[in-house]
Amino acid sequence: MKIPSSWVMLCMMLSVFVVEGEVSAVAPAVAPAAECCNVMELVPCANAFTTSTPPSAECCERLRKQQPPCICQYITDPALVGLINTPNAKMVSDSCGSPMPNNC
């Protein structure tokens, strides 16, 4: 049985989120703006970020709650850049009415 590539990407993304959460717990962020950031909040967006699937209402709600400094942190994080800073992620953010900041 072949596993769809979207599920493989979703599992990889969730693994990155778990590792990011563990690193954040061990080494607290230096910048105060980063304290609001919790990349795990975007897990409902994983499928939409990695495929052309439209974002769910929950994804959009959580994406709109993210602060611009947090989105910038995700966009510039080497562990997340391939998942968050993509054409699909831009489409998701535009679709949710929460455009990606362009001054990161």
Written description of the protein model:
- The chain has one domain.
- Helices cover 56% and strands 0% of the residues.
- The protein contains six helices and no strands.
- The radius of gyration is 13 Å and the shape is globular.
**Compute the gyration radius: what is it?**
13 Å
Low-confidence stretches: 7-11, 22-34
- Helix count, DSSP H or I runs of 4 or more residues: 6
How many strands appear in the DSSP assignment?
A: 0
Terminal Cα span: 42 Å
How is the biggest beta sheet arranged? none
Average pLDDT figure = 77
Number of spatially distinct domains? 1
Anisotropy-based shape: globular
Note the main attributes of this structure.
mainly alpha, 56% helix, 6 helices
Briefly say what this structure is.
GO terms for molecular function: lipid binding. The protein is mostly helical. Helices cover 56% and strands 0% of the residues.
SSE layout and pairings?
Layout (H helix, E strand, L loop, with lengths): L4 H22 L19 H5 L6 H9 L2 H9 L4 H4 L2 H9 L9
